[in-house]
Write a structure and sequence with these properties.
disordered N terminus, 17 helices, Apurinic-apyrimidinic endonuclease 1, binds zinc ion, DNA-(apurinic or apyrimidinic site) endonuclease activity, 7-stranded parallel beta sheet, isomerase activity, alpha/beta, metal-binding, phosphoric diester hydrolase activity, 447 residues
Length: 447
């Protein structure tokens, strides 16, 4: 691991997206910024639309979307180290709940930092009382990474054993943001593949059984061709490794983004030769932003039935539990804290009480950045510790009871301002798009 550089920056940052910051900086680029999230604000704020489009073609390996997961390093390369909210990384913020004590075996955790070595993810998971965890196996924004050290590997294996984490079942690494398995350029495809397989090999060295990644971007090519390339790369990667299951994450975005529909995921899986080596992770924020409702019992049932019918639960391996700052079908990927977004607490109650999902890792990717007293941004991991306990408390809770309703209302009130702010942006963009359409300008084709 790149100790010095990764130590200075958080390995993961689920706070507000660069798109949102870019929008704050310039209102003239709202439409573009809402769908383009992987670029630093300076680029996203550029008014040269054509130039930006050309750049997207020139640097196609950057997979679109998932702003909620774009690390700070990508937004502010020269960002100063954040002040730590808590002085001691090892100080427990919550005790782990014995999963057997829950009415249903739900393994709730968060995407923790692996800065300084993969073994640190175990300590960081322990600290917040997580029963599952996600991590990056290497820097998610760089192509060149040193190999994993034997020391880090052994400490990871020892840490999991000592603390009773099953890496095979409940560790869910997240793939690099640079890798696009749909890449058609031979050199870039080879680079993406090499990084991908390297991650899978790291998984196998660490006894990790599931590997989550973003399917990719068509980069303007046809969807079937792009999906064919993803499957071909997966098939090769399966032959080069032995056990790890490659888990496709559903996406929020539109346009070139692959994986925002169950059909995309199904079409990739259809072409994978070894069906035991492929799975799906449902990110609740992405699903909702892509138009899959989960808010009421009925909506949840309909969405899950459509998943079962199209993809099948036999491929469902994991969840990313995130509320959404953006409304249903907005294609905006903005993670919100549990219960405070447009999804609301009931969606999460439905998930943690569904027997189908027993035993799966359920990983929070919710924002934990807070403004400190001195105005500096601080990471407050207590937020994850509390969200884990909140989600666990929902197991077996009566969703019509006073306790649930009070929690639901309180969290919705907390997020009201942020929801209204993003709703406003979405409305403005819709109005702008409608205007474009009525002028017969041949509105942008998304699918
Ligand atoms: Zn992701
Ligand atoms: Zn996710």
């Amino acid at each position: 691991m790149a100790r010095t550089s990764s130590r200075r920056k958080p390995a993961v940052d689920y706070s507000e997206s660069p798109a949102t910051k870019a929008e704050a900086a310039t209102s003239s680029t709202t439409a573009k910024a809402t769908t383009r999230v992987e670029e630093p604000p300076s680029k996203a704020a550029s008014k040269a639309t054509a130039k930006a489009a050309a750049k997207r073609k020139a640097e196609p390996e950057a997979v679109e979307s998932d702003s909620g997961e774009v690390p700070r390093a990508a937004k502010r390369p020269k960002a100063k180290a954040k002040t730590k909210a808590k002085g001691d990384d090892s100080m427990p913020l919550a005790e782990r709940t014995a999963v057997a004590s829950l009415g249903k075996a739900m393994y709730i955790g968060a995407h923790v930092s692996a800065a300084g070595g993969v073994n640190n993810s175990v300590t960081n998971a322990m600290q917040i009382g997580a029963n599952s965890f996600a991590l990056f196996l290497k820097s998610q924004r760089k192509w060149d990474n040193p190999p994993m050290s034997a020391e880090a590997r052994d400490l990871f294996l020892g840490g999991c054993k000592d603390h009773g984490y099953s890496a095979a079942q409940h560790a869910l690494p997240h793939g690099s943001y640079l890798v696009n398995l749909a890449q058609s350029d031979a050199t870039k495809a080879a680079q993406a593949y090499k990084s991908f397989v390297d991650d899978l090999q790291r998984c196998e060295q660490l006894g990790i059984g599931l590997y989550n990644f973003h399917p990719g971007s068509t980069l303007g090519d046809t969807r079937p061709a792009a999906i064919g390339r993803i499957a071909a790369q997966l098939n090769s990667s399966h032959r080069e490794t032995k056990t790890v299951v490659t888990v496709l994450e559903n996406m929020a975005g539109s346009g070139n983004v692959i994986g925002s529909t169950w059909e995309d995921l199904r079409d990739i899986i259809d072409l994978v030769e070894d069906k035991d080596r492929v799975g799906v992770c449902i990110d609740t924020c992405h699903a909702f932003a892509a138009g899959y409702d989960l808010r009421t019992n009925e909506a949840f049932k309909t969405t899950m039935e459509s998943f079962e019918k199209t993809v099948s639960f036999k491929y469902l391996k994991a969840f990313h539990l995130n509320d959404s700052k953006a409304p249903l079908g907005s294609n905006r990927d903005l993670h919100a804290n549990i219960g405070t977004g447009f999804l609301g607490l009931r969606a999460f109650h439905s998930i943690v009480n569904d027997d189908t999902f027993r035993g799966m890792p359920m990983v929070l990717e919710t924002p934990i950045d807070r403004k400190g007293a001195d105005g500096k941004t601080v990471e407050d991991k207590q937020i994850w510790a509390d969200e884990i306990k909140l989600l666990e408390s929902l197991v077996g809770m009566d969703p019509e009871g006073d306790d649930f309703r009070a929690k639901e209302a309180g969290l919705q009130a907390t997020g009201a301002g942020e929801r209204s702010r993003i709703q406003d942006q979405v409305d403005k963009k819709s109005a702008k798009d409608a205007k474009k359409g009525s002028r017969g300008a041949g509105g942008k084709k998304t699918q």
